[in-house]
Amino acid sequence: MDREQDDETVPIAELLDERRRLLNVAYWMLGRSQDADDAVAETYRRWYGLPDDRRIRIAEPRSWLVKTVGGICLERLAPAGRSHPGTVGAAPPQDLEEEVSQALLEALDTLSPAERAAFVLNDVFRVAPGTVAAIVGQTEQECGELAARARHSLRTRWAHPTTPQQHDRVVLAVRQACVAENPARLTSLLAPDATVFFDGGGKVRTLTRPVHGARRATRSLLTLLAGRPRTTLHCQSVNGRTGIVVRYGDEVAAVISLDVAGDHVVQIWAVLNPDKLRHWNRAATQER
Predict the structure, then answer these.
(1) Strand, helix or coil at 269?
(2) What secondary structure, in 3-state letters, does 33-76 show?
(3) DSSP secondary-structure letter at 122?
(4) pTM of the model
(5) Which residues on adjacent β-strands are paired with residue 190?
(6) Which of 45, 144, 152, 270 has the fewest CB atoms within 10 Å, i.e. the most exposed one?
(7) Alpha-carbon span 47 to 282, nearest angstrom
(8) What does the pLDDT look like over 18-63, one tens digit per residue?
(9) Do domains 3-159 and 164-287 have the same CATH topology?
(10) Any idea where the RNA polymerase sigma-70 region domain is (predicted)?
(11) DSSP secondary structure code for residue 266 in this structure
């Protein structure tokens, strides 16, 4: 027997445990057993597509497989290729039937792909932070922030479920209040303990700490969005949910995501980091 092939032999119990873990990761991320099966099959196709010498040099095959299946799931969660996780009639793997409820899957589906991946990999499967960062394509700190945001979103949505129609109505009302520079109306749309996070990435001068409380959040938002007539606000899809895209002239200057619970906004994330807005501005340039 070839020595290198002999070194690749793995006990059957370990093989089954490995495959079950990959299926569980994929199911939590995608929400349907067929999609999970497909993602795991693609993962193994990529494994066996590696040159033999490269595959043998991988010190931790399971880590490589988890990283690969996570990346595949993240690609499929992107808006362009996204299915509808949690579709009625999709049976979960048997060992997850009690652990993952339909309601939880629907709640996970309200997260952005990056939030969902960070939460599932970090909180559910305790994947090493470096591996999570490699899958999501952000730093470990940013992935920690994504997971924290996901936890908060899930808690608030679990307590105060919101339909997509409700979410859209609240976001539209927030945009209108900001355009009208109406602090009373804007404050009424925010939860009393609403929080605003500003992500400038150290590339623009903005607040580095969250702003807590409806009135302070209102003040900071209206200050940020002052400067019309060149500053315009548009409701657009942001990570699969309606958000607000802020333009200064022809340039996308900020992208604002809102977490809604019931009829009120509980969290606002304003991305002003030019690096993260590059693809928005490239898309805007192509449209002109």
Answers:
(1) strand
(2) HHHHHHHHHHHHHHHHHCCHHHHHHCCCHHHHHHHHHHHHHHHH
(3) I
(4) 0.53
(5) 265
(6) 45
(7) 34
(8) 888 899 899 888 888 888 999 999 999 999 999 988 888 888 898 9
(9) no
(10) 19-78
(11) E
